Amino acid sequence: KKCLNMQSQHKRKLDKSVQDDLYFDSYSDVTIHEEMIADSVRTDTYRLGITRNGHAIQGKVVLDVGAGTGVLSIFCAQAGARKVYAVEASSIAEQAMEVVKLNHMEDQVTVIRGALEAVQLPEKVDVIVSEWMGYALLHESMLNSVLLARDRWLKPGGLLLPSKAELFVAPINDLTVEERLGFWGTVKERYGVDMSCMTGFARKCIMNNDIAVSLVTVEDVLSHPCRFAELDLLTVTEEQLRSVQGSFSCACFGSSTVNAFCVWFTVTFPGEEKPLVLSTSPFKPETHWKQAVLYLDEPVEVMQDTKVEGEITMFPSEESSRHICIHVEFSIGDLKRKNKTFSIPDGYADVQ
């Protein structure tokens, strides 16, 4: 990782159309679609979520927002949808048309190339399905398009798949960071040169303001998860997404070192018997979303029942509205309350 203390001097705000072009272009390559479909937790849960809601899809009209290769649209057609409008802004829409044709679904599935905000549908829809979630749930900000589709095209009493999202946080001890910081103390023994003075510099570079997307193991998690926000997708507004916030309070399991917070999400598909949950928790099987890791400036030693509490606010970056920022105010034990703001800096334009 690089140090970002000069970041604000070298970045500039991207025009909205440039942001959108960068975003849609990222979906024009096969790699991201391979990663998503190969994520069996994601794809199987969507397939099951659609199948379990077959009673609401049978003979009805479905809109797939951000259809990609069209796999969710075909799931809906297989569940008996009369018509599926698969809206996709990137050039992968051409491949989606081929997939639809190969599966003999042309009569049921219509692929529409264009941004959701610009397309026109010939009719209102009964169901909206979308796999809109990004890292830390809201990075990429595709949820705004789903809400626009909901307000513009969904019939009263219509169904959203998924219908709810929840955000969770827990303190963690990232052992990899401890190993990397400890490395500089071992150089003298190995090579005869004392480089322990590098530890402070390494800490600033590694424990920076980036939202790190990485896998967190169950052993790293130091408390029970705390839910800090819930989004009802039938009622949440774009204005409310400008600031998604909540508080958390948890007690540590035992003696350890807190060097980061871990954030993850779940989404829920409604069901007649019981809801179906797609979870990106470190306690559940791995997904391509992994977890969002937020490193503290300094590690803090904790004991059993040490209280960790605070507030989290998630909001769009000023530089790019599709990028999420996370602000955390927190206290650990009796230590003074601190705060830190994190972001995913990809996609900024460098000032020449």
TrEMBL record:
EC number(s) given by UniProt: 2.1.1.319
Cellular compartments annotated: Nucleus
Keyword Transferase annotated: yes
Chief subcellular location: nucleus
Gene Ontology MF annotations: histone H3R2 methyltransferase activity; protein-arginine omega-N asymmetric methyltransferase activity
Keywords: Chromatin regulator, DNA damage, DNA repair, Methylation, Methyltransferase, Nucleus, Repressor, S-adenosyl-L-methionine, Transcription, Transcription regulation, Transferase
Protein name: Protein arginine N-methyltransferase 6
GO-annotated biological processes: DNA repair; methylation; negative regulation of DNA-templated transcription
GO cellular component: nucleus
SUPFAM superfamilies, A to Z: S-adenosyl-L-methionine-dependent methyltransferases
Species assigned in the record: Paramormyrops kingsleyae
Tagged with keyword Transcription: yes
Positions of the Protein arginine N-methyltransferase domain: 164-333
Top-rank EC class of the record's enzyme: transferase
